[in-house]
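Notebook entry, structure prediction.
Reason for the run: the old model in the group folder had no record of what sequence produced it. Starting over properly, with the input documented here first.
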Amino acid sequence: MMKKNSSFIVAMIPAGIALNWVANSIVEMLKLPLFLNNIGTVLNAIVLGPLWGAATALMTNVILALIVRWTYLPFALVGIFVAFLAYFFYKKGWFKKAWKVMTAGAVTGILASAVATVISVYAFGGFSGHTVDVLTAGLIASGQEIFNAAFVANIPGTVADKLLTFYIVWMILKIFPVRFLPNAKDIREKIGIAPKNSVGKKKTA
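New structure, fully documented this time:
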C-alpha cells in the first residue's frame, strides 16, 4: 500500500504542476485578469493532502519564475495558503454542493487577495507585472493609497479566479472515477457521491 501511494504521489505532483502551467499559460496568452495557476494545487491538496498541495504550489511558482517572470516566486506563498484553505473547506464538507464550493472559493479569494496584496506592495511596490497592475495604477492615480489600491485591484480577479478554480476541481472530482484514488472513500463522502453498490442496494430494497 505504501509503495502504491508513493507511486501515486510521484504521478500526481507533476500532473498538478502541468495543470497549473497549462491554465496559467492560457491566462498569460489571453492577458486575462485571472491566474488559474492553482487548479492542480487545490486538486492535489484534496487528493494527496495539504502538504503535497503546498509542494505543488511551490514547485509551480519556481518553474513560472524561471520561465515566465521571476515575480511569480514570492507568490508561491499565496498558492501554499490556498492549498491549506482548500483542504480545510474540503474536510469541513464544503465540496458537497455547488453553492458551498462557490462560497468556499469566494472566501478563499478574499483571503488570498490580502496575502497577495502584502506580497505585491512590500516586494514589488504594488506592481508585479500582471494585468491587474493597470487597475492598481488607475486607483493610485485617483488618489488611493498604494495598499488600498492594490487590494481593491486584486479582489475581483482573485475572487473570480478562486471561484473558477474550486468549481473546476469539484467538477474534476465528480467526473473522475475516484475509486482509483487512495482516499476514494473519503472523497466520495466529502463531495457527496454515494458508492455505486450502496445506490444499488437502495433501489432493490
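Summary: The radius of gyration is 18 Å.
The old model has been moved to the deprecated folder.
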